[in-house]
Protein 1
Amino acid sequence: MRKKLLDKTLRVYILFSLMVLVVSAPLFYFLADKLFIDDADEALLLRKNEFISNNLHSLMPADIPVWNKFNRDIKIEEIRAGGIRDSIFYRFYLDTLANENEPYRVLQSPVKIGTKSYVFMARINLVESEDMIKGIALLFIAILATLLIGLYFITKRLSKRLWKPFYSTLEQVEQFELDKNTKSDFPSTDIEEFGRLNQSVIKLLERNVMIYKSQKEFIENASHELQTPLAAFQVKLDTLAQQLPFTSELGKTLSDLNDSVSRLNRINRNLLLLSRIENNQYTTLEEIRIDEILKKQIDFFTEQAEENNISIHLKYAEPCIKRANPTLLEIGVSNLLLNAVRHNQNNGQIVISLYQHTLSISNTGAAAVLQEEKLFQRFSQSGITGGSGLGLSIVKKISDLHGWQLAYKFEGEMHIFLLSF
Amino acid sequence: MKLLLIEDGKQLAESIAEYLATEGYHCEIASNLEDALAKVTLHDYDCVLLDITLPDGNGLTVLERLKKDGKMEGVIIISAKDSLDDRIKGLKLGADDYLPKPFHLSELGARVEAVIRRNKFQGSSKITFKELTIDAQAQLVSVNDNTLQLTRKEYNLLLFLVANKGRIISKTSIAEHLSGDMADMLDNHTFVYAHIKNLKKKLSDSGCGDYVKTIYGFGYQWEA
């Protein structure tokens, strides 16, 4: 799946920020924790040193219960078992007020009061430190989140502004149609790369338009030029037919020649017609009764169809008025009918129905689905049936010109052409 | 009958002139506009065949000149530029017919004949061939004064055959003649056979001789 350019940059930014957050948050937590513990340990040592220098020499064994009574965090206890060494460790004490165990950092150190050995215990509650670390972590996350959101919006806005000419160019290129004479207008930009892009696109489009135009002109000129020699050829053939002592072999040859010239003629005229449609030479539109045109054309083709025992059924034809070019509409309808006759089979049939928005012409024929994309291409299937190979592409051009849709499907052993107005 | 053929394609012009000469027309050729203008000012013709695209200008100028001079010639435009605009413009300027290139000589012959008939006799002329009479204005066909019931296509076919009498006409040209503007849509020419058969039957039923000869594999001929 393709992503938008902006989303892609933003995604990278967000991913990076998240990674920084994930890596730095525990790191930060441990660091803060360590700093606090170090701080607590230092405070405990200080207390011990203060006790040794300020209190130890004046303290009597009898004072110890009193001392313990008034000092919550510094206690002196008798040694119960084994040797005690200086050490700092964690320990949980029950908080009678909150009735829960709370973590403490505890320092113990052997002291001598009088003649007896005691153990000096100093402790610092770590609950506050945990709260503080939590607070700091939260703050840290908040800052990071703000940074991230800020980054997101700034990038989005900035990129949008930066890439605006790009998107505008993109839109123009997307809307560009070679056969429509649309003038592309690219906005000026102060970004060098986009300027270069626009220049190249303009050059590319202009070149394409030029090639397309010259190709169109070429086809039209070529057809024109072909017409004179074709006319001479046709006339010579007719003259030849008058001059010869006629034999049946010769008659057949001449007849074949005549058919070939006829076909050449048709191809040439259809090419000319195609290029004229493309050159917008049929632009006048009129209100036309499509049903009447259809009936007129069916009359003509009925005779043609009967030659091959094909029956034409006009299943339904409601009065239907559309704005169209009369010449082109007639050509389009007759090309569709001709197609239905030509590609039919012996004893086949053609079914036609016309509704307000669709004309459907279906015919029996070879039981194989045709490729729709190839069907409307020039010369895609000429040669086999003696057609000009241009009929359906002319219909397609005509339907495009009027903004109609031409579709093909194969259903119930029938080839169906659907023209939707 | 004097014709002027204005056409710059030498081969085409010669063939047309040759063909029309065998039809009994005297045909002069002008291969450029200057020549053509000189000829139409100096002489009178029964029919002018006019190509629009000439090396030194637009053939329609000839039409304008004829109109200005008040000459009554029948003009048939023969043009490779089969565009609707030219057709309308030509007919507006007073041309009698428009025949896009390429065409069959038999088609051209029939049109020339029709134009001359219309202009000379204001369309009231009757074409007679032995016992057969065709009233082109009323579009009635009679054999020995008995009127024949022909379909429109049969009538056109008969007129076409008779206009090209003595000549071998290809199936293709008959088919295209009968189909008119729809000629491009023709897929096969076998339907000509059915019309010929019907026409022959109607003619013989009414006592007309059988003048339609089948040229095997190629077409038909109205035997003169």
Protein 2
Amino acid sequence: MELLLASAIGIMTAAGIYLVLRLRTFPVILGISLLTYAVNVFLFTSGRVAVGAPPVLRDDITVYTDPLPQALVLTAIVISFGMTAVVVMIGLGAFLGSDDDHVDDCPDVPQDPPEGTS
Amino acid sequence: MSLFFIVALPFFGALLPGLMNAAGRSACAGVTFTVTLAAFIGLLTNLPAIIAGDVVMARVDWMPALGLNFTLMLDSLGFFFALLILGIGLLIIAYARQYLSNKDNMGEFFTYLLLFQGAMVGIVLSDNILLLLIFWELTSLSSFLLIGYWKHLPEGRQGARMALTVTGMGGLAMIGGMLILGQIVGSYDLSVILQNRELIQADPLYVPALILILLGCFTKSAQFPFHFWLPHAMAAPTPVSAYLHSATMVKAGIFLMARMWPVLSGTTEWFVIVTSAGLITMVLGAVIALFKHDLKALLAFSTVSHLGLITMLLGTGTAFGAMAAVFHILNHATFKAALFMSAGIIDHEAHTRDIRRLGGLRTLMPVTFMIVSLAALSMAGIPLLNGFLSKEMMLEEANHTVLFNNPWLVPVLATVGSLFSAAYCFRLIAHVFFGPVRDDYPARPHDPGAGLWLPPALLIIPVVVIGVAPFLAEPFVKLVTASVLGNAAEMPSAHLKIWHGLVPALYMSIIAVAGGLFMLAIFRPALRLWENTPRPEAKVIFEGIVEGIARLAQILILPLHNGAFSRYAAVGTITIVAAGYYAWTTGTLGAPTHEMQNADPVLISGWGMLVAATIGMVFLHRNRFLSLILIGIVGLMVSIGFVFLSAPDLAMTQFTVEVVTIILLLLALNFLPNRTPVESTVLRRMRDAGVAIAGGLASFALAYHYMLRDPVASPISEFHLANSYKGGGGTNVVNVILVDFRGFDTFGEIIVLSIAALLIYALTEALLGGPVRERLLNRKPKEPQAGGIHPMMMVVLTRGMMPIVMMVGFYIFLSGHNEPGGGFIAGLIVSIGVVMQYMASGFSWTSSRLKYPYHGVIGAGVLVAGFTGVGSWFVNKPFLTSDFTYVRIPPFEEFELATAALFDVGVFLSVVGAVMLSLESFSRLARRKESRTAMYPMDIDPSRPVQPEKEGV
């Protein structure tokens, strides 16, 4: 089971990085989403995984999974929505403003000599 | 008055001029004057203690662990400088009121001036050297603002930048020096450091500390080879030049050298470095000053020269030298500030500062003539004026100073410096005021109103009084000298007097004055010679160095950081993977502590779908709609994974977030192109794939090895599990952690989420307020529009479901403390319920039925959560301490009431508000010109192109 989880994390990370390296905003956003999944699952597994032991206290049960990573990941999931929305908005604003959804600006080489040189 | 007030007054007062801007220019200047006057009077209240020889202290511990305390100390040296800063400050403020034109923003000017004043007072009153450094940097910053005050002048901006670069660099060096000093002594308090002369001078780090501190002092006080910035800073308005560059800021370096004199001086290193730098600066500055045609440039180089003189005196390391230095600081501050202000008056009235275009002003501007003559003659060292006295003392000291084993070197150079100094003073008087009256002045020169000439005239009073009756100044000079000397040397017995008898210094003085007159006589040939001599131009060199450094930085940075996002991402990934790989190969891997668990078929099939969808996305991502479906599958599989691996709360959250994310991306896709074109080359794709696979393998290896090993330390989760019910009153540990144990984190997180939503709203507003709005309104839909934009099935279904969704949300919210659920999940579910109405019945229909704007909901959420936390203050508990109790209302079962539930209400409200505000903002972009607000929920789009009806259908 650990192998499955780890490989899922690895594959999602690889796909996420590949998409983040694309040149248009939309695949980059999808790539970031994939990376978010990978990171969230990774953080979740930092509590070590167990089947059938949810951290909801019951009288006759003594084995629970680690609740702390779950709490952290829960807020991370919600915040990642906020972050995705902001990035989408920025990408959208850039596209609507310039009719261009490339993520890379031209390399930033100064064209004019800096002010004050004689 | 407490020292804290004296330092704090200018800083707090700096808020006032900006506020008073609307009240008029006089109000602005008036409030600045009042603030400075209050600080000045506050300073004077400490005079009795200073005269009694006490040191006034004030102390507040700030960061005691770092040795950084807000400790202030007022001894006679600090008092002397504070008196100069505040006293001349008062004159400058009065002068600036008249000087600045009504095009200048006076509030801004006085705000900067007060900031600067506060920083300067802070420097001279600091007892803690770290605090002193903070004020030191503040003077660099505020002087940057002041020098560049006339933002429209390129010289002003360049001068400000150069001053900031040089003094800022020196400040950095000084931080290093001060830290070394603090380490040697073991305390950062000046009063302690000053007691440890032997300890410091015996330390092997004494020389590095000395050099670093002197770098700071020399850059600030424009000593060779850092003298070049001061003349360029003259692009500032004249009040700034008079204040910063004659009386105060450039004296900060001198002040520090005097302050550190008891512990740093007296060694060969100190003597050689400080004396030679001072000597070179003095001669160089005086020679250059003589040939400058701009009045302010002349005065700037003359200031450089005089600062060199003072530095040289401090460098000699004798008590007499220190006394002469103190005396000259006082004298120089009076006559130089008066000269700067007079130069401003001439510029103001004649509209030029070029000496070649002036001349004959003696009869046109008699008052200014008087002021300038007295000040300049004092500077030249003419008897009965105060400059003569300290210059005599300097020459006397030079006579006893043997540098590089050569008894002639210092006296000769000092005489040469004085000679040129006298020459430029004579030139200043002769070429500006004497000669024939011209008829080609840019403006008709005349004496200004008293507002402009009174401040310099007031400064002339001490010039003359001290010059005639030096014994009046003697007690004060000796008082200050005593605190410069500390325990390091005996007070010199010499007195300040005009006639010392026929001593060598007198002959040197006579040579200097006579030589000065001779230089004036042969000025024209000398100028021709000077102009034909090639010499390095400091500004060109400085700019060359700056440009070279910038080039070097570009060469280093551009390959990594060229503005292309993909490059950052790739470089970042490779760096992280390389760092991980290094750790992997150099570290040791412990043995796995537990066996791999068996995988369930359900998990395997879920894994298969997730992997297929992920890989599918890589290959099919050009079809954007398809990739949205695929990412939906990935999210769904992750949710199922959470269900399976005992994380019901996570599963519910992931599932609901998935829904809103997909809706959001669909809304965005409405505007973006449907397909991603092929742009990158195969090579580039291979390279990206390589980077991606490396990153994937790294995260796989990390996660895999991580999961097979137990934590090295026992996690704090045990505590949470044990105390969740006992302390938090809930059985769902995840929820208790969120709203109780880590409530403050959650509070921060809902604020972050709210800020993100507000940011989206703001971006939407900005887009709709700009040129994009027209394009959006006139946009042609990409796909043919459906006839029924609000399908009846969907409308009926969503309205029917609304109460059910609300009830589910309510249930999940309430049960959240004990069962999976809680404010986050309930908030997401309710949002989905509302979004369904938007989708089915349309934007206008839904928003017209909303009672509360989403911003309000967000704000209410954050406030409810915040006030829940504040509530615990009323029972003397820390922020967000929770409490709970069980109540029973008769027919029902006993139930729990917890403050954490109230906090969860806040979480719930902010999540609903944030999610809805984001989605609403996106849909507002989607509105088009021709889309009309539908009267009824179920209608036909009236703007749809009418299809010709087919026959017989």
Protein 3
Amino acid sequence: MNWIYKNLVFIASLFIVFFFVGLGIYNPDLLSQVSTFIHQRIIDYFGWGYLVAAFFFLVFNIWFAMSRYGEIKLGKEYEKPQYSYFAWFSMMFAAGMGIGMIFWGVAEPMSHYLNPPGYIADSSGEAAKYAMRYSFFHWGLQPWGVYITMSMAIAYFSFRRGMPPLISSCFYPLLGDRIYSSIGYLIDVLAVFATIFGIATSLGLGAMQITSGLGFVFGFESSFSAIFILICIVTVLFMISSMTGLDKGIQILSKTNILLATLLLGFLLLVGPTTYIFNIFTSTIADYFSSLFQMSLSTHPFRGYEWTQSWTLFYWAWWIAWSPFVGLFVASISRGRTIREFILGALLVPTLLAFLWFSVFGGAAFQIELNTGASIAEIASEDVSIVLFKLYSYYPLSNMLSIVTVLLLGVFFVTSADSATYVLSMMTSNGRLTPPASKKLVWGLTVSATATILLYSGGLEALQKMAIAAALPFTFIMLFMCKSLLKALNYEYTQELNIEENQE
Amino acid sequence: MLDTALLPLSLKESRNKIFSMANLLKNFGTTRIVLLHVLGGNNKRKKERVRKQIEEIANKYREIGFQVEMFFKEGSVANTVVNFATEMEVNYIALCWQKKWLIKRTLLGNIDADMIRMTDLPVFIYKKDYYLFKNWDLNKVLYATDFQGTDTKVMPYLKNKDFQADTLYFLHVGSRAPDPDTEKKRREKVDKQLQSLAEECTQAYNRVEKLNVSGNVKNQIVRKAKSRGVDLIVVGKQDKAKGWDQLLGSTAESLPHKANCSIFIVPGMKTRRSVLV
């Protein structure tokens, strides 16, 4: 009985996973109908709320960094950061959006260029400008604003206040001991729900994309058996990495990722149209910052609303749904940094890297699309997974580039799955920073099995929509989290720091 | 300490309520009442009618056992009452609270609330309705303290032998600490502070109880007063409102709208305005 009570979040989460996976196997159409209905209704009615919330989180973080609370450490006063800047940025980037950027670095600008909102002529100069600006916007400050809000609260309450690193812990100033009751469990179960479905769909859909990319490069047809083999290999790798612990596994993988990514980025920058890329980089940065406010709050209700729904609002919901996982992970690697250092580092460095990535890959694609008449944009709108490899075919050493990219994707994959397994185990072990290996094994296998089974039955995209639907409650959870954090910091600043100053 | 009270009357108050309040004022040791009506307009007949009505009330108060004086003034009601109270050197202002709905007080304002905001004298707000209030004695009093400077101003009133009640509750509504360990220490500290206040009053009351809670200050005061069946809430008023309080009104200013028992507001410090006056 005591075991059940202690593992309530673990049991409830497993039960929910089995229920949805069972539904996905038994009746994938029903799961698809239900999830599409919920997802579409949320985007239709609450889409504007996502925009406002994401902008609020960004402003909240900037204000926090500049405020008197910026000096407060995410840890005890004597603690030093656990990881070097390079390791910190590498892990943060790998968990946050590394894999997505590989896929969308070329595909997103090309897709917006070919299919902009109705009021912009497609394949025009204006469409190209719009495509780059919105690619920056979707992968820029806002996603990191969402992640930082979540991770800062978790890091503060766990490392400074000595509470378990759980999302429910962040609500102590508002709920008191009620965080140990049903409402606290509900918040944690919801976080597990969003994380496991997010990572399972990411693993399944990603494996599908990698296989079709490999098929394009090496000339074979993508099939379920090929995807299955890939998932098995990735599972073995991330389970090995997971068992070696956070210090070794994820850190080594993340550093390898960043080195490989820098290698690719540097190659394309030097061999590709360098000046053209820098022109795109600087002018899009200017364009981005001058219209940041307008982009942040405009749903384009009069024209282009559907475009905003299918791109911006989808992204925002995705980042919010993904935030429990990234938030918990980023928090666990940020111990010992001050709030100011944490916010500025996590907000500016990954954003700048994303801007550079999109400028290099998007710029290289635009140069070929506009100057050689290649139909890269068309390929992007048809199949996202092969467009990057198509771009490589216009460059020297294209096979080598493709192999490095596949390797990079694979390592990013393993890193994401590894960190997700770690986070899931932590969340379901009452916030233990060294969760038991048995739970890592259970969650690792559950994630892979869910991805494989639903890929086979056809319910994977439905599951992704269910994961995104979790963004709605999480938006409110995060807003209350801001209030709770502010209350806690205000208490510390006025009651504790002032007392210490007076004592001195 | 509460010997003389200024009672501003608009004559919209129910007579029964005015008279039942008089019985309650006796619990404070009040012996002298200054009745004030602020006139609007120059209609002689109306003035005469008002004078008669105030005289009737004064006579009734005399029958109860108060010394009564009557005054008639012209001008802005809140300003006139506040300035006249200072001029007459009364000990406190007693108001027969008239409930106004949110929309009405947003559009038209609330003179009683303005008086509470502007004055540096203690204010007693009488909220019980006559037909609900059969017992003229103060049974339970709740003092909501934040351990700030107002304690030094409020405690003398609570310890005063003329201030008669059976039970006194000391309530502190604190902001919850960020984690359970700190919260435990905070609560222990608050308990000690409440204990030291309680010890000062043990002689004056049959029962003294401490209430240590966390949450929204205004809501918790109202909730605790209601659950304990309190007759009178005593609060201190601070002039330096912070944050949202500047916009929404301080705890003392907004309590009369929320609480369903009488309230006694004691100002914490002199404002610049009162010093000038």
Protein 4
Amino acid sequence: MQRAIAQHDYWNITRELTVSAFKLRDQGTFLGFLWTLLQPLAMLSVLYWLFRNRVGESIEHFGLYLLIGIVLWTFFAMGTGKGLLSLVMRRDLISAVTFPHELIAVSAVFTVLFSSTLEFVVVLGFAIAVGAGISWTWLWLPVILATEAVLVIGCSLLFAPWYVYARDLDNIWNILLRLGFFLTPIFYLPEQFLSEGEQRIYMLNPVTQIMTHARTVLLHHELPSFGATAYTLGVSLAILLAGFVNFRYFTRDLAERI
Amino acid sequence: MAHTLIDVSHLTKDFRLERATPSSLFSRIRKVLWLRGQTRPLRALSDVTFQLEQGQSLGLIGDNGAGKSTLLRILSGIYRPTAGSCNVYGRLTPVLELGVGMHHDLSVRENVFLYGAMIGFRRPELVRLFDQIIAFAELEEFVEVKAKELSTGMRQRLTFSINAHLETDLILLDEILAVGDRSFREKCYGVFKERQREGKSLVLASHDLGAVEEVCDCCLLLERGQQRAFGPTAEVLAEYESNSQ
């Protein structure tokens, strides 16, 4: 089958879908964009209050440590959640407008990435406020956030077509995210609870790696090791590639199934 | 010299109609194991063959359920053929459902940029054509109004206007001449005629035989997915009308 739909500007479509979704998200709410910031800050206050003495006393700048974990986890959880639902949410477009449908999932993730980037600005302000210092290593943060974006887009491209076929996936993924919240070092140090052997398996999780890298940069003012960076980027790119192949294969008859 | 724009050969399309049960994981697993037993086949198109030259316009006619919209969706690339082939040698604009793709909580201006991007416009082109798009849709007073405040006809006019400004070799239209009032229909005809003078093609699925006669050089008559006739518009329309009586 040969066909050339009007040549699409991928970036323009992604930008328009992202910006419009972002505008619509807080439209009509009293606090508007501030809701984006209040959610991680509310989580921070509760976790800080609960764990500051028992877990937090052995972690320098525990508040900042927590905030980095919360912001990065929120990006992963919300990004994959929105990405998973994205195709079904825009089913109207799929049966009537011919454009690369993976951009629906990608733009859903970009909407969350946009919020997370703004949250990271708050993280930097927080780092200065608590006396964690400023460092040139902060320049590495966009790379860390971009790596997480690759991972989240990959997961979204993996899950979004399957959600069209099985609506249970949303519930299954939410359960896994709930478990993941406790199985990633958001509010504790892995060495506080895990043996060395367990830590080796634990560190295979790319989200754990991403959190560790962000803390290395912001708290210790060092760059993450080359090996760890290469591993995280490699896993994220592999998931993106798998997601892309999965998306192309399982969306061939999407308009008939959705 | 005109070249072949559309080449459809022995095209067949089957759908599998599922029972109206929710798509749960359990029902999916069951379907994988006993797939054929859980669905009912429906042949929407059967062995359709025709060619269209660049510059010609084709009318798709037939009663409801004949397969016109399915054929348009296959030509657009939204559906895949079950058997046979369907080749389009050029850039095309599918205008299948007017109003779809508009976001009701965004303004008319924002929708022009969002919808325009999705159908293939680049942003500078949209900036340049924005006033023309709005003027064609006759929505100059509603640019900053949310799309949900517009009537259905206004939203359809806006969608059509955005599509009409995209320069492609072929426009696919599904029953869109029912849009808007008489004066807007006349403007649509004007666009079609201008495109035809420029050597572009149209494929128009419609029950409005007068419109098909006015716009199309040739016609394809479908009946329950079967190709009943293909040829010059007057001959095919005569056959359709004689069959209907």
